[in-house]
Design a protein that fits this description.
single chain; 260 residues; mainly alpha; 0% strand
Length: 260
Amino acid sequence: MSSQVTAGLLVPFIGTTLGAACVFFMKRRLSKQVQRALTGFAAGVMTAASIWSLIIPAMDMAKDKGKLAFIPAVVGFWCGILFLLLLDTIIPHLHMDAEKAEGVPSKLARTTMMVLAVTLHNIPEGMAVGIVYAGFISGSSEMSAGGAFALALGIAIQNFPEGAIISMPLHAEGKSKCKAFADGVLSGAVEPVGAALTILFAGLFLPVMPYLLSFAAGAMLYVVVEELIPEMSEGEHSNIGVIMFSVGFTLMMILDIALG
């Protein structure tokens, strides 16, 4: 079981690392259309993962509450939304192609705030993987090794383009390829660390697992609606973002059913 869990925790991080490595092989910055497509794909994966891997299992775990089985999902979901809203308000960060930074006023370098923006994005993904594997370790019937790995693999797939989207603009901003790669990798490091910490305290979390699953779903969907959907819809000819959203959603849905 330990090898399965270790692999599951590392897979999303490997996805980010491989994506960040694109800075060594691609000479030009990604075009707007490609960025929209990759962002839409990531949004689709995260949306499907929130539903099939997190919210539905959360309600299944609370089925003993009968018609009130929705309560843990609703409470956890809103806690996740508010938690990300708080982080979004406090942490200084800068989205791609934005001129004005968000969060508290800061004198941090533009490139540093760009990395913080992606790191903020990755926090709920790491939490989601950790919570699902914590449920698997605890022996919950709603969490299987295949289902947990499906979530980790889905996030890894959408992390690949995300790694490229962060490292290549950083290089375009003036950083060396090695430093841009390192920053891309660093932005994804929060995922395995957060997941491992969640698993470490799995015993404490077990009684509130339905709340935690929906908490991660709320946090992920906050990122999708606040950041990814606006980015994939920006400018003209944004249909590619919608199409790739649908591709990502479908792929994650297939992975969860086929592997779960």
